[in-house]
């Protein structure tokens, strides 16, 4: 796989606001946030797209979601809720060909429109 922006971040060739690192993954704040909280969780192993995952990547990909949940709890938005999503290829919105989990929080997402239970009670 060709070198990507994310492999350069992993190798510390370019800076990033890293919020988590372990043997398998790295998490850092998105430089173009789409929500008040927006960070990426990436595997250190280069995998271009979801379509390129293999059976042997099952635990690695699960680990990315566990890291997202751990960080959501640590950052205080787990109970309120968040979105965790991977994009795949151009029509899916993927721009960096190294799989990555977007974690977005700090505002309501989805349909029907979110209603704050405290405001309606």
UniProtKB/TrEMBL annotation:
- UniProt motif Histidine triad motif: location: 98-102
> Catalytic center at which residues?
100
The GO molecular function terms of this record are: catalytic activity
| Residue intervals of the HIT domain | 5-114
Entry superkingdom: Bacteria
- InterPro entries of this UniProt entry? Histidine_triad_CS (IPR019808), Histidine_triad_HIT (IPR001310), HIT-like (IPR011146), HIT-like_sf (IPR036265)
Q: Do you know which SUPFAM superfamilies this protein is assigned to? A: HIT-like
Recorded protein name is: Histidine triad nucleotide-binding protein
This protein's species is: Bowmanella dokdonensis
């Amino acid at each position: 796989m060709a070198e990507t922006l994310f492999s350069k971040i992993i190798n510390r060739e370019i800076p990033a606001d890293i919020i988590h690192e372990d043997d398998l993954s790295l998490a850092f704040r998105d430089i173009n946030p789409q929500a008040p909280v927006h960070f990426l969780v990436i595997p250190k192993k280069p995998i271009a797209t979801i379509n390129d995952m293999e059976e042997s990547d099952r635990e690695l990909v699960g680990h990315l979601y566990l890291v997202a949940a751990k960080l959501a709890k640590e950052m205080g938005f787990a109970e309120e809720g968040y979105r965790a999503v991977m994009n795949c290829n151009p029509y899916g919105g993927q721009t960096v060909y190294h799989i990555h989990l977007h974690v977005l929080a700090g505002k309501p997402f989805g349909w029907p429109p979110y209603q704050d239970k405290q405001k309606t009670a």
